[in-house]
Amino acid sequence: MSSSPSIVIIGTGFGGIGMASESTRAGIGDFVILERGGDVGGVWRENTYPGAERDVPSPLYSYSYSFEPNPSWSKRCAPQADCRATRRPNPSQDRLVAIARTESQE
Q: Which residues are CB-neighbours of 15 under 8 A, at least 6 positions away?
C-alpha cells in the first residue's frame, strides 16, 4: 500500500467494514480505514445502555451484508449484543480489521 491511499474509509461500523469489503471484492486494495474508537463496531460498540436494541425488525432492515447474511437474530428487533457480534471480525473481515487504524484522530 502506498503512503497516500486512494480511498480513506471513516469508521469501522457497518458502513465502513462494508465499504472495505466491497472495495476488496472489486480488486481495490489501496485504502485505509480510520476508526476513532479503540475497537471496531461503530454505533453498536458505543451504545451499551440497558435495553439497547434495533427499533426496526432486523430481517426487514437487512442489518447484514448480502455476502454474509445473518438469518439467526436472537429476537425480532435484535439487541445491542447481537448487533455488536455481527460487527465483530469474522474470517473474511480479519484482514480489514487488522489494517484499521483505531484510536485515530487524523
A: 42
CB burial readout 7-16, b (16+ within 10 A) else e? eebebbbbeb
Torsion angle of C-alpha atoms 92, 44, 105, 11, degrees rounded to 10: 40
d(CA 7, CA 20): 9
Residue 94, pLDDT > 50, answer yes
32 dihedral zone (left: phi>0; alpha: psi -120 to 50; beta): beta
* C-alpha to C-alpha distance for 10 and 84, rounded to whole angstroms: 18
pLDDT tens, residue by residue, 3-45: 788 899 999 888 888 888 889 889 998 999 999 988 888 888 8
